[in-house]
C-alpha cells in the first residue's frame, strides 16, 4: 500500500510544486511507483509534469466530486515516469460545491483508496491556503512535507500550519504526522540562510530533512519545457539534491 504525503505550506512561492514534481521524478528514478496528485487549481504541477491542463478529459475536480474515479482521470508523465492526477482551474469550484456533499473532508482519501495498491508513494501538491482542498490532502495523508526557504520570515505562518496539522491529527486523521521540514532554494553564501538553517535544526531536530535543496536555475527553467528538473538536467545540483531527497524518503518510509 502506498504511503501518502502532502507537500504543504500555506505560503505561495515557497517551492511546494517544484518539490512535489521533482520528488516524484526522483523517486521514479529509484524505481518507486509514484502517483502525483495536483490539488492546486493553478495546475502548475500538472504542467510541470508535461501534461496540458487545458482540455483534460477528467481531473482532480471530477474525482473530488465523485463523477470520475482516479483510474479514469490519471495520466502518465512521460518525461517524469510517474502518474499524475491532473488539475486545472475547474478545481477552484470544488471548494464551494463540496460544501453540500457528505464526508467532504474525506473525498480525496476515499478516492485514493481504489488505487493505493498500485503505488509506493502518492504525493499531493497542495494549494497555498489552509482550505477545504488542503484539508482533503491532510485527511488523505500519512505525513506532511513542509518546504521552506531559510529567510527571516520563514517561521512566520509555520505555527498556523502546525496547529492545523495538530487539529486534523486530533479530529480527522490520527495517522497524520509532520514528516519533516525541507530547506529549499538554499543559498549557502548567505549568512542569514546559514543562521536560519541552524535555528531550524535546533528547534525541530530530526524533523528537519538532512537533504538541502539549493537554489538552482535549472529547476526554475524546467517547467517551461514541461519536464521535471530531475529529467531536464539530471546532473545539475538541483536535480541531484531532489534525487538524494527521494532516497531519504525511501529510507524514512521503511521506519513508518
Ligand atoms: P509554490 O508551489 O510553493 O507556489 P513553486 O514550486 O512554484 O512554489 O516555486 C516558486 C518559484 O520558485 C518558481 O518560479 C520555481 O521555479 C522557483 N523555484 C522553486 N524551487 C527552486 C530552486 N530550488 N531553485 C531555483 N528556483 C526555484
Ligand atoms: Mg504550487
Write a structural description.
Residues 91-118 form a coiled coil. Keywords: Coiled coil. Residues 3-178 form the AAA domain. It holds the Pfam family AAA_31. This is AAA family ATPase. This protein has helices spanning 16-29, 44-48, 60-65, 70-73, 91-97, 107-112, 132-140, 158-171, 191-204, 217-221, 229-232, 237-254; strands spanning 3-7, 34-38, 75-77, 82-85, 121-125, 143-149, 177-186, 208-214. The relative contact order is 0.20. It is 41% helix and 18% strand. The chain is built from 12 helices and 8 strands. It has 256 residues and is of the alpha/beta class. The radius of gyration is 17 Å and the shape is globular. An 8-stranded mixed β-sheet has the order 3-4-2-5-1-6-7-8, sandwiched between helices. Strand 3 (75-77) and strand 4 (82-85) form a beta hairpin. The chain has one domain (3-254): P-loop containing nucleotide triphosphate hydrolases (Rossmann fold, 3-Layer(aba) Sandwich). The two termini are 12 Å apart. Magnesium ion binds next to helix 1.
Lateral strand order in the biggest sheet: 3-4-2-5-1-6-7-8
Total number of helices: 12
Main beta sheet strand tally, sense and closure: 8 strands, mixed
Count of domains: 1
Q: For the CA atoms, what is the radius of gyration?
A: 17 Å
- Strand content of the residues, in percent? 15-25%
Task: Count the beta strands.
Answer: 8
Helicity, in percent?
Answer: 40-55%
The CATH architecture classification is: 3-Layer(aba) Sandwich
**Highest-level CATH class:** Alpha Beta
**What's the CATH H-level superfamily name?**
P-loop containing nucleotide triphosphate hydrolases
CATH topology: the name is Rossmann fold
Shape: globular
Average pLDDT taken over every residue? 96
Distance between the termini: 12 Å
Amino acid at each position: 500500500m502506498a504511503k501518502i504525503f502532502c507537500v504543504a505550506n500555506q505560503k505561495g512561492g515557497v517551492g511546494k510544486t517544484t518539490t512535489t514534481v521533482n520528488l516524484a521524478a526522483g523517486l521514479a528514478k529509484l524505481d518507486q511507483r509514484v502517483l502525483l496528485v495536483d490539488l492546486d487549481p493553478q495546475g502548475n504541477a500538472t504542467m510541470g509534469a508535461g501534461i496540458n491542463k487545458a482540455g483534460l478529459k477528467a481531473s482532480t475536480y471530477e474525482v473530488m466530486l465523485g463523477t470520475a474515479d482516479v483510474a479514469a482521470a490519471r495520466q502518465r508523465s512521460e518525461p517524469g515516469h510517474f502518474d499524475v492526477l491532473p488539475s486545472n482551474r475547474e478545481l477552484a469550484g470544488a471548494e464551494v460545491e463540496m460544501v453540500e456533499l457528505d464526508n467532504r473532508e474525506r473525498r480525496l482519501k476515499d478516492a485514493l483508496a481504489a488505487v493505493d495498491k498500485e503505488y509506493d508513494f502518492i504525493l499531493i501538491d497542495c494549494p497555498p491556503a489552509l482550505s477545504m482542498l488542503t484539508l482533503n490532502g491532510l485527511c488523505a495523508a500519512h505525513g506532511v512535507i513542509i518546504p521552506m526557504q531559510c529567510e527571516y520570515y520563514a517561521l512566520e505562518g509555520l505555527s498556523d500550519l502546525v496547529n492545523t496539522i495538530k487539529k486534523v491529527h486530533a479530529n480527522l486523521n490520527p495517522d497524520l504526522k509532520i514528516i519533516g521540514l525541507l530547506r529549499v532554494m538554499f543559498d549557502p553564501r548567505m549568512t542569514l540562510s546559514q543562521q536560519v538553517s541552524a535555528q531550524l535544526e535546533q528547534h525541530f531536530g530530526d524533523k528537519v530533512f538532512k537533504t538541502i535543496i539549493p537554489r538552482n536555475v535549472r529547476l526554475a527553467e524546467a517547467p517551461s519545457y514541461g519536464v521535471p528538473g530531475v529529467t531536464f538536467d539530471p546532473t545539475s545540483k538541483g536535480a541531484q539534491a531532489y534525487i538524494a531527497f527521494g532516497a531519504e524518503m525511501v529510507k524514512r518510509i521503511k521506519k513508518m
